[in-house]
Design goal:
With 120 residues, this protein is mainly α. The chain has six helices and two strands, in the order H-H-H-H-E-E-H-H. It is 66% helix and 5% strand. The N and C termini lie far apart (66 Å).
Length: 120
């Protein structure tokens, strides 16, 4: 189930407008109208983007009197960070191993003559 949730999150963030909405919500809660202001699309289009983000668990909406602010849900970002961090560490380990092999190769003296020079 966690992988399915992770797939929904990455899918939701595949769209640049939704990534921008997430970035803006990282600075603080905002209504759909406030989120729609900088875009040259309808409020309904932005609302659809927010529904996708809600479906992925990245955003929630609450009621504050007449206002319905959207809020970024940080724990989902933690899920993504843990997944990314795992593979980043594995990649770093492989690079460290490669560095060690290359260092050993540099330390070993070159023996023999290359095939081209031997043929001449």
């Amino acid at each position: 189930m966690a992988n399915d949730r992770l797939s929904r999150v990455f899918s939701a963030l595949a769209d640049p407008t939704r990534r921008d909405i997430v970035a803006r919500l990282a600075a603080g809660d905002a209504t759909v109208n406030e989120l729609a202001e900088p875009y040259d699309v309808t409020v309904q289009a932005v609302s659809k983007h927010i529904r996708v983000l809600e479906g992925a668990g990245l955003v929630s909406r609450s009621r504050d009197a007449q206002r319905r602010p959207c809020r970024l849900e940080g724990e989902v970002l933690d899920l993504m960070t843990k997944w990314i961090e795992r593979y980043r560490r594995e990649a770093e380990d492989r690079f460290r191993q490669l560095d060690a092999v290359l260092e050993q190769m540099e330390e070993q003296p070159v023996t023999g003559t290359p095939a081209r020079e031997a043929a001449s």
